[in-house]
Specification:
heterodimer; A: 367 residues; alpha/beta; four-stranded parallel β-sheet; 14 helices; B: 346 residues; six-stranded mixed β-sheet; 11 strands; elongated
């Protein structure tokens, strides 16, 4: 806002001056500028002369020429250009935070998808930057960990901020949550309810935050001196189907079933819930299920899901602030950690007495 | 007009010199125009990289009289709907060398028209893609037309010539679902309306009433309940419907979230879905496959519609020969276990 005021000082020639001087309406000047039809040739010539005399430059161009800015920021997500599924709530929340801050600061935002797994991602990013000159870039994970893309942005002198990258080190700003601590807290929530056999559904392990979430689960077990059982840790891929298969492995695999399942994200947890329903298990009476992320589905599942809330929107806001500060030439905080919060809903409870008895019995069987 | 050149900043002249090519060629490459040999293109890109040259969007706009920028204007609280609209519009922009900016707004703001006119002129946008319900606001559309700002209207009601308007035949989509449920033998069917600001809400209710009438079934007073696409409105409506003297054996909800609310109430009351209560919905969002049981839902062609509208707009602003709107945007009924029980042993 400050900047806007500056650029509209009295000395600046505005479209209003052009209109007054040439004796036409603002709309007509605007039409001439935009080369719209429906302007009489004589009027067009007159307005163009006045524009030249007064040295009037249209607003956006004026701002850009003076400040060398294009007034928009690109938010980059992983994915093919036309991805229909994926994790819409993450995208929606992050972009909402970015747009909010952009609007407050007189900027605009565009959302682009890049597939970092393809060799042309760098070329695509180079084209985007060179042709459309965004003033800054916010990178969502896993793009925020792509050394190739980061190196390219450095070389092109484009300010950027990273959201939840593999490593929070480096000079460039980063926004993240403590996945390990959050995951440990959720596991301890289940332990404190009395669960001792807790299944864990992994995320895709090439993602650094999946690794950190599993580390948190293991740390909690260690802290509570509960022996880790490898069979209770099953692979997942952050999808509903993956969660369903993971639950099938935990509940139908022939071993004594867990009394609780902690899934690495809400979609996987929804899959676990579906599998439990199908087996006729009642959640949370027969089985507790917890998720991670607190996405929009968490409140609409039955029963509503206990999960770990991380404000993705806040991450978007903070990362945008960092980029805007870089654009202004000030130094933002290098690393901003966003708070997480356990949201207890109806999918977790103390294990039923019968389940505990069975659990203890099976624990005795395991030497 | 762009008179002065910034000191110390690489210009297109520098790029042309270093590449040993004409300014025109450099400009062709940065404008992504065809007819540049790959080798030359690479030389230009290399020179650009060496000099750290960044063409200014506005400077290019002044030179080419085209900003290659469009904006998607929306007031869509629902993330899944928004993402699919965005995907279609962005994909089309990408394929045609345009950049899509996002402009969320308040569709009830009395200053919306002024805001959009200002947006378009400040950023020299080539056009605006309006999502519903803004695409239904005649005053806003008229103001933009008066200001000679090209617009595309998504999920429009009006499809007069001269406007890049795309319709979705919501009534047809709704008919698929209602007939499916009637076909399963249900006679008492409850209906939860969508948000009143959306044309699709009206179209779905119309389709419901018509299909019921065709099947010779009654829609008694109190079996159509107001809703607003939310989960909570589904819970409220389900409670009201199931407390009736003759409760429905099936409920159609105007959105997946609302249907999830209906299912939650059924679970709370110990009713088996679909045996004691069938539930159908619209949206086919990711939630539809995550509820228990998974939801039978109608998939709207949102991405296709946004793509088609954006395509018409690009053709319009570029003066291309008329591109015909797609003759049909296909709705699809995705049948899941909330209306038809999975076969035993399956």
């Amino acid at each position: 806002m400050k900047r806007r005021k500056k650029s509209s000082r009295r000395t600046t020639v505005t479209i209003r001056h052009v209109a007054e001087q040439s004796g036409v309406s603002l709309m007509t000047v605007s039409r001439v500028l935009n080369e719209s039809p429906n302007v009489a040739e004589a009027t067009r010539v007159r307005v163009q002369k006045v524009i030249a005399q007064l040295g009037f430059v249209p607003h956006r161009a004026a701002r850009s020429l003076r400040a060398r800015r294009s007034w928009w920021i690109a938010l980059l997500f992983q994915g093919a250009a036309r991805e229909l599924r994926g994790d819409p709530s993450y995208v929606v929340e992050l972009q909402a935070g970015v747009i909010e801050r952009c609007v407050e600061n007189g900027y605009h935002a565009a959302v682009e998808r890049l597939d970092a797994s393809t060799p042309i991602a760098a070329t695509q990013l180079r084209e985007l930057v060179q042709q459309l000159a965004p003033d800054g870039v916010v990178l969502a994970p896993p793009l925020s960990s792509s050394e190739e893309l980061l190196a390219l942005l450095r070389a092109l002198h484009v300010p950027f901020a990273r959201v939840a990258p593999r490593s929070t080190d480096g000079d460039e700003p980063v926004v993240f949550i403590d996945d390990r601590a959050a995951s440990r807290q959720m596991t301890e929530h289940l332990l404190s309810l009395g669960h001792r056999r807790i299944g864990f559904v992994q995320g895709p392990m090439q993602r650094s935050y999946s690794v950190r979430r599993m580390a948190g689960y293991r740390a909690a077990l260690r802290a509570w001196k509960v022996r880790e059982e490898p069979a209770l840790i099953v692979p997942g891929d952050f999808t509903f189907e993956g969660g369903r298969m993971a639950a099938a492995q935990l509940l139908g695999g022939g071993m004594p079933p867990p009394t609780a399942i902690f899934a690495s994200n809400d979609e996987s947890a929804a899959g676990c819930l579906a599998d439990a329903h199908q087996r006729g298990l009642r959640v949370p009476r027969d089985l507790s299920i917890a998720g991670f992320d607190d996405t929009y589905v968490a409140t609409m599942l039955y029963p509503p899901l206990t999960t770990m809330s991380q404000s993705i929107r806040e991450m978007g806001r903070m990362a945008t602030d960092q980029v805007l500060q870089l654009i202004k030439g000030t130094t933002p905080s290098q690393a901003i950690r966003i708070e997480h919060r356990l949201v207890e809903r109806q999918s977790t409870a103390a294990p039923a007495v019968a389940a505990v008895a069975a659990q203890e019995k099976s624990a005795q069987q395991v030497p | 007009m762009s008179g002065k050149q910034a000191p110390r900043r690489a210009t297109i002249v520098d790029v042309a010199k270093l590449a040993g090519l004409s300014i025109k060629t450099v400009s062709r490459v940065t404008n992504n125009e065809p007819n540049v040999r790959p080798a030359m293109r690479q030389r230009v890109l290399d020179a650009i990289a060496v000099l750290g040259y960044r063409p200014m969007q506005s400077a290019r706009g002044l030179a080419a009289r085209r900003s290659q920028l469009m904006a998607l204007v929306y007031d869509i609280p629902n993330g899944n709907y928004l993402i699919r609209i965005q995907n279609g519009a962005r994909q089309c922009c990408k394929e045609h060398g345009m950049q899509l900016l996002l402009h969320p707004c308040d569709h009830r703001s009395p200053l919306l028209a002024a805001e959009l006119v200002k947006l378009a002129s400040h950023l020299r946008l080539e056009g605006l893609v309006l999502a519903p319900p803004i695409s239904l606001d005649d005053a806003v559309i008229a103001a933009l037309e008066n200001a000679h700002i090209p617009v595309a209207l998504l999920a429009a009601v009006r499809t007069d010539r001269g406007t890049c308007a795309v319709r979705m035949d919501d009534e047809h989509g709704a008919k698929l679902l209602v007939e499916h449920i009637i076909g399963l033998g249900h006679r008492h069917i409850g209906f939860v309306r969508g948000h009143p600001d959306y044309e699709s809400s009206r179209a779905r209710l119309t389709a419901f009433r018509r299909a019921m009438k065709r099947a010779g079934l009654e829609v008694p007073e109190g079996s159509v309940i107001d809703g607003d696409f939310s989960f909570e409105s589904g819970q409220r409506a389900a409670a009201a419907l199931l407390d009736r003297d003759t409760p429905p054996t099936a409920i159609i909800a105007c959105y997946d979230n609302t249907a999830a609310g209906v299912i939650a109430v059924a679970h709370d009351r110990g009713m088996a879905v679909p045996d004691e209560l069938a539930v159908g919905a619209f949206g086919d969002t990711p939630l539809a496959s995550m509820t228990w049981p998974p939801l039978t839902s109608v998939r709207q062609p949102l991405d296709d519609m946004a793509y088609a509208g954006t395509r018409l707009l690009i053709a319009h602003v570029r003066g291309e020969r008329r591109v015909h709107p797609p003759s049909s945007l296909e709705f699809r009924l995705v049948v899941r276990e909330s209306t038809v029980a999975a076969e035993a042993g399956a």
